[in-house]
Amino acid sequence: MEGKATDKGFLTYLEQFISDHKKQLFDSVLQERTKKITVVLEDIFQPQNASSAVRTCDCFGIQDMHIIENQYRYELNPRVVLGASKWVHMNYYNALEHNTEACLTKLKSEGFKILATSPKENCLSIEEVDLSCKNAFVFGTELTGITEVAEQMADATVKIPMVGFTESFNISASVAISMYALSSRLKKETNNWMLTEKEQDEIRLHWYKSAVKNADIHEKEYLKSNFFDNL
Asked: Which segments within 97-230 are labelled E, that is strand?
């Protein structure tokens, strides 16, 4: 009877513990979520920047993030993230020697185009990115930017157009500006950016588990009572 409940039956079961107001809020937010754009953060070591990036993804409807931990652990500041990490799916890559390669290889296998961010002059502007396909945007460390591995594996490098003396934005500002511009364009220029019904149910179940007190106990009880149905 060990395992995780992932079927629609458990979703229906948990609904009894969710208020109508919260269910309507979840449904409304899900209508604005997308998996066509994702954010990849490589070795971000400042908790404030790490937390701001999660809040940005939540605010602009980016459901998935990918966290690469080669040298540094990705730490969140509760006063900055404000619970956003409960609503955004965060995928961690820290088990291997070459975590950047593992992350980007996985994303490519899922059909993502890898776009590494850079302040270099010969980069593609984010305003010119083709949003008809799935895109993963890689942001590097606060001090050195993306690694050579990330740049070599990228399908293209992109930049935020700037006209001042300063070479680049800090990481939290870069993520915020990029996701605002890209998510706005995505909804205006494409018609297949929304989640599928299956994706919505998977995320809704995750959110219900985050919102229901003692959800793990309810899950065990549900699995126990439905043991023979699941054989």
From this structure: 112-117, 124-125, 134-139, 156-159
- Is the confidence at residue 1, as pLDDT, over 50? no
Percent of the chain with pLDDT over 70: 92
For residues 123 and 161, what is the distance between their CA atoms, to the nearest angstrom? 10
pTM, to two decimals: 0.89
Q: Are 163 and 65 in contact (CB under 8 A)?
A: no
Those residues with Cβ within 8 angstroms of residue 170's Cβ, 6 or more apart along the chain or in another chain: 49, 142
* Per-residue exposure over 188-200, b if at least 16 CB sit within 10 Å of its own CB, e if not: eeeeebbbeeeeb
Structural domain tally of the chain?
A: 1
**Which CATH number do you get for residue 208?**
3.40.1280.10
Whether residue 11 lies inside any domain: the answer is no
The label of the residue with tokens 């890559």 reads 93
Do the Cβ atoms of 66 and 103 come closer than 8 Å?
yes
Using an 8 Å Cβ cutoff, are 123 and 159 in contact? yes
Angstrom distance (rounded) from CA 4 to CA 129: 39
